[in-house]
Design goal:
Blueprint (H helix, E strand, L loop, with lengths): L8 H7 L8 E2 L7 E4 L3 E5 L5 H13 L7 E5 L2 E5 L13 H18 L21
Helix pairs in contact: 2-3
Length: 133
């Protein structure tokens, strides 16, 4: 069952043993309701494929891409480590941007696991990802 969008955010953090220190709603969030603590990020979104995003992020991390580590996910939500730095501005949070990021991560995973390769990008563009050296 997908949790409703007005689910108490603190419950998601505490259910997984995460601190709620500094809990507040994020100023931005493209297609998800986003909550922040000092160490974690909660994304609530019934229409988001949280498991796919987590799998792509884990593949990117394994390949050396610096991205947030998914901590827990389930139907309608995902919890991520919080990275230092600022938030994207609302004008940067577009479907084209997120599709490009996901396409890049899928390409990266496909090079590591050729059987999962799929043809061409959905977004028509590539996002630039920085890799650790």
């Amino acid at each position: 069952m997908v949790p409703p969008m007005n689910t108490e955010p603190a419950a998601h953090f505490t259910r997984h043993g995460l601190s709620v220190s500094g809990l507040r709603r994020a100023d931005t969030g493209f297609s998800n309701e986003v909550w922040l603590t000092d160490a974690s990020v909660l994304r609530l979104g019934a229409g988001t494929d949280h498991a796919r995003e987590a799998a792509l992020a884990l593949g990117a991390l394994a390949a050396g891409v610096r991205t947030a580590r998914p901590l827990f996910w389930g139907p309608g939500y995902s919890l991520w480590e919080r990275l230092p730095g600022g938030m994207l501005t609302p004008s940067q949070l577009t479907p084209v941007f997120w599709n490009a990021v996901l396409d890049d991560l899928e390409r990266l995973q496909a090079t590591r696991h050729p059987k999962s390769r799929r043809p061409g990008p959905r977004s028509g563009g590539w996002a630039i990802l920085k890799c650790r050296k």
